[in-house]
Design goal:
With 320 residues, this protein is α/β, with parallel strands linked by helices. It has helices spanning 10-19, 33-42, 71-74, 94-107, 121-126, 171-182, 193-214, 225-243, 254-263, 270-277, 287-296, 302-312, and strands at 2-6, 25-30, 44-47, 54-57, 61-63, 81-85, 111-114, 133-138, 141-145, 149-154, 157-161, 186-189. The strands form two sheets. An eight-stranded mixed beta sheet has the order 5-2-1-6-7-8-11-12. It is globular, with a radius of gyration of 19 Å. Its EC number is 1.1.1.169.
Length: 320
């Protein structure tokens, strides 16, 4: 079994490092040649949660921006290839989709897994690919340090499933899930992955924008009574909207939000990290997606819409 891990962010590097401990052949793909060169030369450095131990894993690494130059090397390969797409939603643009399509044709992928926050990415990728696309929701904690180092910040669970119904026999879900289990992840195959996607979307819609807005760690967010009121209101609005799409969310309570804040107390949310680093955030595919679902169902989403406007005002192109 051969696996392309596409994306060298925190989750991509964690997945690659863990899979490199299995008998599988792993090839890591980065956005830039600079990152690819560093990883080729130094390997992936995986730190344990307590920072007491680290291991270095070497693997082939290439840049997606130079995919055209890989045509001759990759063409004609007959091995069984799969892909794990671990880039952020903001990176799934037309150029990336063209690169991914080229790579998928050269590799002749049997199936791909996608790991992103928010919603909308699966249908974008499905529009150019007819193969099974397996959606993944994970609570694994990872933090990238530099171009080739990642800290496994905390173990979690990884749930996968077929949102589009292209893997009716669940063959690829089980096969890819088994590969992740061999790599050391705790994996569950769900018959209703949409419930897990929307549950994480709802939790992210509260924690991500508010930690970015108030510039606090996850554990600090509920410590202010004023912030707590806003958290509850944003949660309730998001839940009411998403219940229209997924009734199973009725069992989800605000205590889950508080539990995530406590379990990841020392973590910086990805949205806060993006704002601090001067990058575009995934706000459009999280709170923006909830606002879109609300509009589709003729509902209002004033808090989610406000979060979109506020966080987008912090994007580098909108700062004066």
């Amino acid at each position: 079994m051969n696996i392309d891990v596409i994306g060298s962010g925190s989750i991509g590097m964690l997945m690659a490092a863990k899979l490199l401990q299995t008998p599988y052949h792993v090839h890591l793909w980065t956005r830039s040649e600079q990152a690819a060169a560093v990883i080729r030369n130094r390997g992936i450095v995986l730190h344990t949660t307590d920072h007491q131990n680290q291991h270095v894993y070497h693997c082939p690494c290439s840049s997606m921006e130079l995919i055209v130059e890989q045509d001759e090397i990759l063409a004609g390969q007959q091995e069984e290839w799969y892909a794990i797409i671990a880039v952020k939603q903001t990176h799934i643009h037309d150029q990336f989709l063209e690169q991914l399509d080229r790579l998928a044709r050269l590799r002749r992928y049997r199936a791909i897994m996608v790991i992103q926050n928010g919603v909308g990415h699966v249908r974008k990728i499905a529009s150019i690919m007819a193969m099974p696309i397996i959606s993944v929701v994970t609570s694994e904690g990872a933090k990238r340090q530099g171009l080739n180092e990642v800290v496994h910040a905390g173990s979690g669970t990884t749930v996968l499933g077929d949102e589009l119904g292209r893997d009716k026999a669940r063959y690829y879900q089980k096969k890819l899930g088994n590969a992740l289990e061999i790599a050391g992840f705790t994996v569950f195959v769900s018959k209703n992955i949409k419930e897990h996607i929307y549950r994480k979307l709802m939790l992210n819609a509260v924690i991500n924008p508010l930690t970015a807005l108030f510039n606090v760690m996850n554990g600090e967010l509920p410590e202010s009574s004023t912030r707590l009121v806003l958290m509850k209101q944003l949660f309730q609005e998001s839940k009411e909207i998403l219940l229209e799409e997924e009734p199973a969310l009725a069992a989800c309570t605000f205590d889950e939000v508080l539990g995530i804040c406590q379990a990841t107390a020392a973590n910086t949310s990805s949205m806060r990290a993006d704002v601090l680093a001067g990058r575009r955030t995934e706000i459009a595919s999280i709170n923006g997606a909830i606002a879109t679902i609300a509009a589709t169902n003729k509902k209002n989403a004033p808090l989610n819409e406000s979060m979109v406007h506020i966080i987008e005002a912090l994007h580098p192109e909108n700062k004066e």
